[in-house]
């Protein structure tokens, strides 16, 4: 390739949408673990059940707090009464598991037969005495991680709007976690460590250790996280009052952000996402900026992290990475990897919310300019077949892709990383930057150790027709 | 509506995709929403497939919901036809398209006008059939399509092959140990002097389907897949079929005798008795194994079998008839074909369980407390919970059930593999005795949980200490039996006395 004029702005394309990703109902797998007193009921067909059972692999055997309400022919043709059927199942769940909330996950089938879950839920809730939250996480409208977005958007409506005095102590689980074992005076003394600023609530489901890490990271700046959507328990959902500030931790939460702004009248802090040391720093800086706080020690902290990553970065510097796109983390990951010295010809992504991701896109552009690499092409609703042709042409060093393509690409001598791992690994904050690179470099490290064996291409040349 | 945590057989389209992707150069296009192409992940992961799975989706989204698919499906078919030049494109309906009720047949006909390859619509109804039935049907449909096509063009070959020959029908992708079984069956046929005319669907080309009638007979090793095709071929060409799964020593011999009868009826003059005898007594180790003193220790041990029809039935017979193991309960999840199963296993087990409900199966296992389970991955996990070993004999399966090493379940090598599986699943004989004699080496706390939740009974300190003295591998059983005894008699506190009373009463 000749050195061409670098494009001035990011380019956005939209292809056919023939791409592979997980069905958004997969979000129950991590959300039921996150929200410990919940029960997720996926109302769909055998197809949905089969997907969950296979995609979630071994988790299915741990007596998960999720189940299928499997629709039968009588349900489809309305010979059975939806309300009565759901009531029967909910009572069974209440009896066997006694959850604090039942989350209905609507699927393609409930959409097509227009089952009025939002209408049924409040009536059922009143009748059986368990809160029922409805999320339409279906494959007609959403991809993979967007499932979480639909659930959290529905949860946002359930957050209490005014703190009850009696509950004050009980509610704030994160604070309690951080204050663990401390006396009341000590807690009060610690309060003074915070700067006075408007109330901040973060949204996005993260493993508890990451929640603690990010909360402590903000605490270092004197910023107090008053709550987190979702919290460990449904009964501990954060209070949301008009005028509270909210910030997202994941790039796929645009519906939740919209709901928080429009319905709960919160103010959204539009920041890049805390993925990679650069992203984490930018995220903290943006929050500080909104609260008029001068961030301290961030420069040093970021530098330290980068230094500790050097052994991994040296493996990927100058190499190219191609995102086929399936989980919406792509922009943030690409931005981080470009900062690590990689080039990125294409970022495939299922759905691109330019408003919610505005700050992230801006940081991506800035990163490319600073690193002196061409701006990537962002391809929304990609076409996997076309992408594979481009991967062959561009001789990419690493393809981040779903499992459907990973083995076939490896057999053709192309390094791949299975994208779903980024959704389940801990990738947020300064602390976990190394984990991201651990994942990204794994195929390169593995293939480095095999490279002298002459086993790169393990398929015969296909006859060109 | 049905509350379900786990299912044994997958949805119908999986069966169709398994058939389509087994053939060479056949592409399936699913009429499905985003995310339903999970089949590709399974094939790529479980079978560690090197090639791209020839399945794509014609995506059903909001627009399709509002306006219908219109040109979309047709465009996707003709595009795939151009890109990959498949011999056949199978348009595959899913649960979603079943309710949309679009005229998919019409799309197929329109696409056929432009496409160079053949296009067909898989005739399966999501709400009526499961994965296995759909697979069976799709295979028959494809065979029929190409037989009829050849007949129209007068391309059907005349007569049979010179030497006795066979079509092996039902080997497919994502089938339990199918690849290994296929190799073993081909080897068996070679040993019997029978030519393999064709293996379908795995690795077959649709262009060769017209030569299926040249075979002297069809062999259908699996009950679930291929029978419809064999019956179709019998009806069209009078080709007889053998549907005895050659799994286990006795059934393999029965299968071979049936083959002998079928081909001798067509003029061959073969006598396989010597071969069967030689294999049984001296080549396969399974017959000798069942006679050896090792296997004596398995006599009368209790086992539970659960799986698909083929494997559960064959396994039940092997355990009961060939190893002297007591099969307390044999079960299948193939409800649609339950009569066949009952008939097969009736004389080899005490109870028969026909169910798709994993909870029911788990409870059955907990109640029977067998020494070993032979089931699917799900039974393996029930076994883990109850501390009972499990050999996996049928789908649904995980990646570890797609071994790279040669592990057939069928034919004479299959009998060896099964013998190993059975033997390794039971606590080894001598170890078992020694543990009993010396009171065990396991001093861990009770960790076994019953299938029912935690016990509501109190154990006194002494009783608990007593319980802990019992060797780990039977401790759970003693605990459960004692508790059952106490519950039956409304005793809420379990003392050492109660323990011994229970032991005397139920032999705990």
TrEMBL record, chain A:
GO terms for biological process: light-independent chlorophyll biosynthetic process; photosynthesis, dark reaction. It holds the Pfam family Oxidored_nitro. The keyword Ribonucleoprotein does not apply. Residues 23-442 form the Nitrogenase/oxidoreductase component domain. CDD domains: Pchlide_reductase_N (cd01979). Binds 1 [4Fe-4S] cluster per heterodimer. The cluster is bound at the heterodimer interface by residues from both subunits. It catalyses: chlorophyllide a + oxidized 2[4Fe-4S]-[ferredoxin] + 2 ADP + 2 phosphate = protochlorophyllide a + reduced 2[4Fe-4S]-[ferredoxin] + 2 ATP + 2 H2O. Its cofactor is [4Fe-4S] cluster. Gene3D superfamilies: Nitrogenase molybdenum iron protein domain. It comes from the Bacteria. Signal peptide: none annotated. GO terms for molecular function: 4 iron, 4 sulfur cluster binding; ATP binding; metal ion binding; oxidoreductase activity, acting on iron-sulfur proteins as donors; oxidoreductase activity, acting on the CH-CH group of donors, iron-sulfur protein as acceptor. Keywords: 4Fe-4S, ATP-binding, Chlorophyll biosynthesis, Iron, Iron-sulfur, Metal-binding, Nucleotide-binding, Oxidoreductase, Photosynthesis. Its EC number is 1.3.7.7. Pathway: Porphyrin-containing compound metabolism; chlorophyll biosynthesis (light-independent). [4Fe-4S] cluster binds at residues 23, 48, 108. Protochlorophyllide reductase is composed of three subunits; ChlL, ChlN and ChlB. Forms a heterotetramer of two ChlB and two ChlN subunits. Belongs to the BchN/ChlN family. Component of the dark-operative protochlorophyllide reductase (DPOR) that uses Mg-ATP and reduced ferredoxin to reduce ring D of protochlorophyllide (Pchlide) to form chlorophyllide a (Chlide). This reaction is light-independent. The NB-protein (ChlN-ChlB) is the catalytic component of the complex. This is Light-independent protochlorophyllide reductase subunit N. It comes from Microseira wollei NIES-4236. The lineage of its organism: Bacteria, Bacillati, Cyanobacteriota, Cyanophyceae, Oscillatoriophycideae. The gene is chlN.
Automatic annotation (TrEMBL), chain B:
It is an enzyme of class 1 (oxidoreductase). The keyword 4Fe-4S applies. Keywords: 4Fe-4S, ATP-binding, Chlorophyll biosynthesis, Iron, Iron-sulfur, Metal-binding, Nucleotide-binding, Oxidoreductase, Photosynthesis. It comes from the Bacteria. [4Fe-4S] cluster binds at residue 36. GO terms for biological process: light-independent chlorophyll biosynthetic process; photosynthesis, dark reaction. One of its GO terms (molecular function) is 4 iron, 4 sulfur cluster binding. Residues 459-503 form the Light-independent protochlorophyllide reductase subunit B-like C-terminal domain. It catalyses: chlorophyllide a + oxidized 2[4Fe-4S]-[ferredoxin] + 2 ADP + 2 phosphate = protochlorophyllide a + reduced 2[4Fe-4S]-[ferredoxin] + 2 ATP + 2 H2O. SUPFAM superfamilies: Helical backbone' metal receptor. Its EC number is 1.3.7.7. Binds 1 [4Fe-4S] cluster per heterodimer. The cluster is bound at the heterodimer interface by residues from both subunits. Pathway: Porphyrin-containing compound metabolism; chlorophyll biosynthesis (light-independent); Porphyrin-containing compound metabolism; bacteriochlorophyll biosynthesis. Its cofactor is [4Fe-4S] cluster. The active site is at 294 (proton donor). The keyword ATP-binding applies. Residues 12-426 form the Nitrogenase/oxidoreductase component domain. Belongs to the ChlB/BchB/BchZ family. Component of the dark-operative protochlorophyllide reductase (DPOR) that uses Mg-ATP and reduced ferredoxin to reduce ring D of protochlorophyllide (Pchlide) to form chlorophyllide a (Chlide). This reaction is light-independent. The NB-protein (ChlN-ChlB) is the catalytic component of the complex. This is Light-independent protochlorophyllide reductase subunit B. It comes from Microseira wollei NIES-4236. The gene is chlB.
